[in-house]
Amino acid sequence: MAPNCVNTGNSTLDDQINEWLSWNKDIKAEMEIKNLIDNGQIKTLSQLFLKRLEFGTAGLRGQMGPGYNQMNDLVIIQTGQGLVKYLLKIIPDVTEKGIILGYDGRYNSKRFAELTATIFLNKKIKVYMYSKVCPTPFIPYGVLKYKCAAGVMVTASHNPKEDNGYKVYWENGSQIITPHDKEIQKSILENLEPLQSSWNTSSIYTNSIFKDPLTEVMEAYFSDIKKNVLYPEVNRKTSLRFTYTPVHGVGYNYMAEAFKVANFNPFIVVDEQKNPDPEFSTVKFPNPEEPSALELSIKTANDNDSTIIIANDPDADRLACAIKNNGDWHVFSGNELGALLGWWMLHTFKVRQPDCNLADAYMMASTVSSKILASIAKKEGFKFEETLTGFKWMGNKASELIKFGKTILFAYEEAIGFMCGSNVLDKDGVSAGTRIAEMAAYLQTMGFTLIDKLNEIYSEYGYHISDNSYWICHEQETIKSIFNRLRNFDDKANTYPTCILEGKYPIRSVRDLTTGYDNTQPGNRAVLPVSNSSQMITFTFKNGLVTTLRTSGTEPKIKYYNELCASPDQKDVTKLQSILTEMVSAIVKELLQPEANNLIARS
């Protein structure tokens, strides 16, 4: 289709389509747009060209396809051009520091990484780019190892196969936060016209300032894994049989090497999911949080007399774990794994450094995660920090604390993301998988299982039981209406619900990180950072239940997180579970009102 020939009846839309067509070099994408025009799909075309993907959760993430509002070659080039201009402006020695790039096994991931590499090489900026698919943690690890100015991982993590993403890390090895995200977005908009040289990827691998860091990073990363193994002789002797799945992602070779250096016998792999597959052909959702994603793992484990399953998501930055218990499979929640790994990292630290001052040691969790680490910290003496949702906040907080000589033991978020130590300032499913295996082997020497240990943790520090889920809502106005009702409950600003079930369960405090309201703080002003671009309200009840309602940054969901935090003397778990169930049902019915708001239940 020749440029400047589109006529949809909307001149602004025509201009955007014509501009995109004049810059685009993807013939297939051009044909898709032509078909939409020929079929009069004005609403679809408006969605693709009158909106634009913006930097959100530390970068871009969206569906692949033509237009400015999807992931494609032109959008990646525009993003790369904006990013490189911003780095040249902010970091004086960026040409020498360089950038590190990686990609997963999704459609177009390698292509998007190569386009990015081309843009940086054209500006004489050193490029480190992995020669094979790699785990996302290898980018933040590589940023610190090579002292890079930034890092980019092309991945959409556990999103559907139609999606891809562009995750950006800063020179401190953490995902970017404000103001960098907003300034990069501004720089992208100032550099939209693609340079002709940005399309030519043919000479990347022969460029004198290009380097493949895979061998060096593998050696260093797995050396760090090995150093942190506490009981290698126990690992070698354990009779436990582990089953592993990368869920069609990048993790197999890396987790196999991690098991090897940790002195374990090889695990049993789920063959059907062993290799990267952009179709994710055996799962409905490539997300190990979803029970259906572990069906083949359970079958493989049963067939091989294995009692523990370890799973990574497709870019291997998250970890799921299941254990056979009295003939049935228990899939640990993110909060349960957070309690276990938190205990293990504390145990490891105390064994290695028995005389060390715990007052300079830190653990972290996101605000929607369990408060179990806070409860352990009160008794054991280390410090606990709560952050906003997302590892970008924990990674940057960890970097800040390290500068002050503090030790980071552990950080996690309930969406099965775990940071064991500070070699990677982001979630890392490979190192976390090794640690959970090591803990299981150690506990076996005492006749304990992971479930036994979890119950012991709760018995000692207080039961923390959770009920987390979500409702689907595609209408932004409906979402806005739900949250506005909650913060104007008596038709006045900052008046929130005071109870549920007609006063049976009173609310003690409210924190609204959309407006900055927190009635536990001086002047009712929240301490944690505030973002009016997303919705998040936390209610704390007098009986210890903490409930957070929030919107997702990447999906059309209203998520709810509920945790009943009991004192150590409350041992009746059945009674606590009954209270939690009753309260969650009332919270959904009274606060979210799914029927009145036409919310769609989780499938």
TrEMBL record:
GO terms for biological process: glucose metabolic process; purine ribonucleoside salvage. Residues 53-191, 219-327, 334-458 form the Alpha-D-phosphohexomutase alpha/beta/alpha domain. Pfam families: PGM_PMM_I, PGM_PMM_II, PGM_PMM_III. It comes from the Eukaryota. GO terms for molecular function: magnesium ion binding; phosphopentomutase activity. Coiled coil: none annotated. Its cofactor is Mg(2+). It is found in: Cytoplasm. GO terms for cellular component: cytoplasm; nucleus. Keywords: Carbohydrate metabolism, Cytoplasm, Glucose metabolism, Isomerase, Magnesium, Metal-binding, Phosphoprotein. Belongs to the phosphohexose mutase family. This is Glucose 1,6-bisphosphate synthase. It comes from Ceratosolen solmsi marchali. The lineage of its organism: Eukaryota, Metazoa, Ecdysozoa, Arthropoda, Hexapoda. The gene is LOC105366033.
